[in-house]
Amino acid sequence: MKILKSVLAVMLALALVFSMSTVVFADGEAVAEVESENTVRDYKAVAAAVIIGLAAAAGAIAMALTIMKTIDGIARQPEAASNIRSAMMLGLVFIETAIIYALIVAILVVFVL
What we know:
CATH architecture: Up-down Bundle
Largest sheet: 2 strands, antiparallel
Oligomer: single chain
């Protein structure tokens, strides 16, 4: 769980840095303004890619762990398989919803900000 929290914290930090950054470093000095809209669009594209990439990776890890634990639970208590499977499906839906929210945030970063 600590790894997932760390990944989510890094994802949020990178998204904020790439999407809100208006400072470009050139030759060690900070330039106050972005020179062209293409550079801003490039930063937004990178931010969206980082958001989606990290969310998909974190979601895949979380789903794999959920399925692993479900199979282990069913192997230990086969009589409770239907209850365990139902809880797993509900958990997978919540994980997938978080990934879809990340997609929506990425779309907002590209088109709204």
